[in-house]
Write a structure and sequence with these properties.
single chain, alpha/beta, two-stranded parallel sheet, 20 helices, about 45% helix, about 20% strand
Length: about 475
């Protein structure tokens, strides 16, 4: 195993696996065989590379010299990086409207579906039907199908399978005539198998190629249909954005590439691209950053590090699951140590035991470096994923700042350039500040010894999560 496990892995990840295998050989080896491979099948990787080349070719004519001239050299460098890794160009003329209210975002998406004339594309990590929140949206999809609108829907197989009412949901969609596919399905009977925690974590809705919604919210009620969450009053706080302009076409291309993977054809991708680019609808310059195990590089991690090292004055981060690798941890702590005002917003109590304690194991190092940590008051889970750098760049989407989002999950992030976009996202994070308590170094160092022990023990699982 000494000559096998370290291959193409971070040394810390390899060491964690080797410790598991050495200390609990039978269990550790079984877990390694089940979870040790973070790559998709060769067929999926090959198909993703082919799609990336096609997308790059489709978007060559969209390169905007004017847009690049409007950004700083540091941002221009990040744009070039994103272009090479994710294939999407920087485009001007976009409109973004952030929606913080959980119910309102679902209502806005429902209204958009009711206005659809040609097609609706829906993609979420988790879908769970309920009478109050999600059923009105599904009703709108059913009405769309009834009036001749093409409705395609993607959901993550395991992410949605575990939600109560899964079979009823499938029956409802099938009976309504909605074309649906389970993403990254696992079914040994059908010879569909891969590492079970490789997931499609993207969230988006695209209507007629004219308007889109994307962000961190899943298509489920805010308590995730979990009795344990309802019992303690736990709800998820999220951020979605209503998008207009060229970025709508980019998000539609992302959906089409995922549909191509699951449906096995490229017809939809051809249709989306041949339909042209959505017209300008605002003054925001933006770029789409897809990432996941189907790409050769960790696109989101490389972007995050690049932007953070370019910060000069302030850096504000919101991440529900903050488990950085060494490169990201060094980028953030280095920023604080060289005088950048760095703030991190996390949940006081997350919904996952191992993740929660592994995350806490980084707090002391962050606080010592000068990072200010704000914890959103329990029992609410702050689920938004975003950050801003100076007055130059805002990034939001589905990607957490953890190993899973960097290596295991398919994610989609949007990088927005300009003071207006930064100001709007900073206003969102300012609202989170009003519902948070700041954590001090003195307070943290005096927590119970047992808590420190649990945090440190869970940190060993960080590179395996």
């Amino acid at each position: 195993m000494l000559g096998i496990v370290p291959g193409n892995r971070r040394p810390t990840t390899a060491m964690a696996w080797l410790l598991a295998i050495f200390f609990i050989p039978a269990v550790g080896l079984a877990l390694f065989l089940l979870f040790g491979n973070f790559r998709l099948s060769e067929r999926r990787v090959r198909r993703q590379l082919e799609i990336n080349k096609r997308v790059l070719g489709y978007t060559l004519h969209l390169e905007s010299d004017d847009a690049l001239e409007q950004v700083s050299p540091a941002v221009a460098s990040a744009v070039t990086l994103n272009r090479r890794l994710g294939a999407f160009p920087l485009d001007a003329g976009n409109g973004f409207e952030f929606v913080m209210d959980y119910r309102e975002s679902l209502q806005r998406m429902t209204e958009a579906v009711d206005s659809a004339r040609q097609y609706v594309h829906v993609q979420f990590y988790i879908i769970g039907d309920d009478p109050e929140y999600v059923s009105p949206f599904l009703d709108a999809l059913e009405r769309a199908v009834a009036r001749g609108v093409k409705v395609r829907l993607l959901f993550d197989h395991l992410g949605t399978l575990r939600v109560k009412g899964y079979q009823d949901l499938l029956k409802r969609m099938t009976d309504a005539g909605i074309e649906w596919r389970a993403m990254l399905p696992i079914s040994p009977r059908r010879r569909q198998w891969r590492r079970p925690d490789l997931r499609n974590h993207r969230k988006m809705v695209v209507v007629d190629g004219e308007v889109a919604f994307t962000g961190s919210q899943n298509l489920i009620e805010p308590g995730y249909k979990r009795p344990s969450a309802h019992k303690i009053g736990r709800e998820w706080v999220d951020l979605m954005a209503r998008v207009t302009g060229p970025m709508v076409t980019g998000l539609d291309v992302v959906f089409a590439t995922d549909w191509s993977q699951e449906a096995g054809d490229d017809d939809l991708l051809d249709d989306v691209v041949s339909g042209g680019v959505a017209p300008d609808a605002g003054n925001v310059t933006a770029q789409i950053v897809p990432s996941g195990p189907g790409f050769e590089s960790e696109n989101n991690l490389r972007l995050f590090n690049t932007l953070i090292y370019g910060a000069l004055e302030k850096l504000t981060i919101t991440s529900p699951y903050f488990i950085p690798d060494d490169s990201l941890l060094y980028a953030i702590t280095t920023a604080a140590q060289r005088g950048v005002h760095v703030e991190l917003f996390v949940s006081e109590k997350t919904d996952q035991f191992l993740v929660h304690h592994a995350q806490q194991s980084y707090y002391a190092q962050l606080l010592v470096a000068g990072v200010r940590i704000f914890r959103y008051r329990a029992p609410i889970v702050l689920h938004t994923k975003c950050f801003t750098v100076d007055d130059d760049v805002a990034v939001f989407g589905s990607s957490n700042m953890d190993m899973r989002s960097f290596s295991l999950n398919r994610e989609v992030s949007l990088m927005l350039v300009g003071q207006d976009a930064v100001r709007e996202l900073d206003a969102v994070q300012e609202e989170y500040r009003r519902n948070s308590n700041e954590l001090t170094l003195v307070e943290w160092m005096h927590r119970p010894r047992l808590s420190k022990w649990v945090d440190n023990a869970c940190r060993l699982t960080a590179t395996l999560q």
